[in-house]
Design brief:
By secondary structure, this protein is α+β, with helices and mostly antiparallel strands. Helix content is 51%, strand content 13%. The strands form three sheets. It has a four-stranded mixed beta sheet, with no helix packed on it.
């Protein structure tokens, strides 16, 4: 298998993928733009070291990013060389394991996405499976057991050099605030190989749920089981808890886990509300969770703050970028009405930005006249102390 990994075509695909994703430099400070020259000078030495089992990965750079709840998540950024090698291994391993992965696993798989997971959850609820076992894994990526994961890999991967390489990546120390920290468990978030490894681990859970004939939806470590009664949900929840604890050695966040009804349940940033139309009893529609709206509004508020030193064209460009990712992701939810309200709110804030940018009263007066405002009115508005820019509504 290591020959397939180091094959020139596979390595070229991996290099192209890493360069396209860009990303930050790792612990060695090498940027993506420098990778080509580095490979030109060291490609033979790297391949020889891997084939001899002597390749030693660089430490992972630990970076903390803030979460919406005020806490932080630790990301592990491998060096660009290790990212390329991990991507090469990922390209060889994915076809082997993809054949066995289950239908209702949607995260980080080719041809599958979050929208399919939402559709399946919606379908289960409409078919009467409205007692939902919602289980949250506590720091899943930090708790993966290396020995168990390598045993699962060995079922498909018999190449000792490939397994040894993966083990070295798993055991590579992480550099946090200038200090190296040993790692004996966990898969670093941020590496090209971690999504596949997480699916390999949780594939065992998928098999157990299907063996029991249960309906479920899993997107990476976010999963839920759908049942028809509260008693059944309790039994399923206890069984899943024991399986995760005893077989996969994964802890559960008990505070965030429980049995939910559709109105109390959230999946992938979406929630469910009943439809009150006649004949639609027991049916629900998708909506965006409150946190999703709050994050969007906070981002838009930051872009349209009048004291931010930014031109009007730059603000418009940033607004387009903000909605380009948010709207397509939540397109399946009922968002049209709220988006109209946000649009009006943004327009009002942009008027404030324009009014603030004009600064001097004389400049305000001249610009108002250019917009077609009568001279006497332009003079009065340009000298107002309110500064609210309400005059622009005439021309909006």
């Amino acid at each position: 298998m290591i020959e397939k990994v180091l094959h020139r075509g596979n390595m070229l695909r991996a290099y192209t993928h890493v360069v396209a994703n860009k990303g930050s430099a790792g612990a060695d400070g090498m940027r993506v733009e420098e990778l080509a020259l580095h490979l030109k000078e060291n490609r033979g030495a790297i391949a020889t070291a891997i084939c001899n089992g002597r390749y030693l990965p660089q430490p992972i750079l630990g970076v903390e990013i803030p979460k919406s709840n005020g806490k932080s998540r630790l990301l592990g950024i491998p060096t660009v060389t290790d990212r390329m090698l991990q991507q090469a291994v990922n390209q060889v391993l994915t076809p082997l394991f993809e054949l066995e992965f289950r239908e209702h696993s949607y995260g980080f798989r080719p041809g599958r996405n979050a929208h399919q997971a939402l559709q399946q959850a919606h379908k289960c609820i409409h078919e009467g499976y409205q007692h939902i076992v919602d289980i949250d894994l506590a720091n899943f990526f930090d708790e993966v057991d290396h020995c168990l994961l390598l045993q699962l890999l060995y079922r498909k991967v018999k190449c000792p050099l490939t397994l040894r390489l993966i083990r070295k990546w798993l055991r590579a120390p992480i550099l946090i605030k200038g200090r190296l920290v040993k790692r004996r468990k966990g898969v670093p978030q941020g590496s090209p190989l971690s999504p596949l490894l997480s699916n390999i681990m949780l594939h065992e859970l998928d098999k157990e749920l299907e063996r029991q004939g249960l309906r479920y939806v899993r997107y990476a470590d976010d999963f839920s089981v759908y049942t028809k009664s509260e008693d059944e949900a309790r039994k399923v929840g206890n069984a899943v808890f024991l399986f995760l604890r005893d077989r996969l050695r994964l802890p559960i966040n008990k505070e965030k886990s429980g049995i939910r009804r559709p109105v109390d349940f959230q999946i992938l940033g979406h929630g469910f509300v009943p439809t009150y139309r006649k004949g639609d009893k027991g049916r629900y529609q998708l909506v965006v969770a409150k946190k999703g709206w709050a994050r969007l509004k906070q981002k838009l508020k930051s872009i349209t703050r009048k004291t931010t030193p930014c031109s009007f064209d730059e603000r418009i460009r940033e607004l387009k970028e903000a909605q380009r990712g948010w709207v397509p992701y939540f397109r399946m939810a009922s968002i049209q009405g709220k988006l109209k309200d946000i649009d009006n709110w943004i327009r009002n804030r942009l008027r404030h930005c324009i009014w603030h940018d004009w600064k001097r009263p004389e400049r305000k007066r001249k610009n108002l006249i250019r917009l077609g405002v009568p001279k006497w009115q332009a003079y009065a508005w340009s000298r107002t102390r309110k500064g609210d820019g309400q005059w622009l509504k005439v021309r909006s």
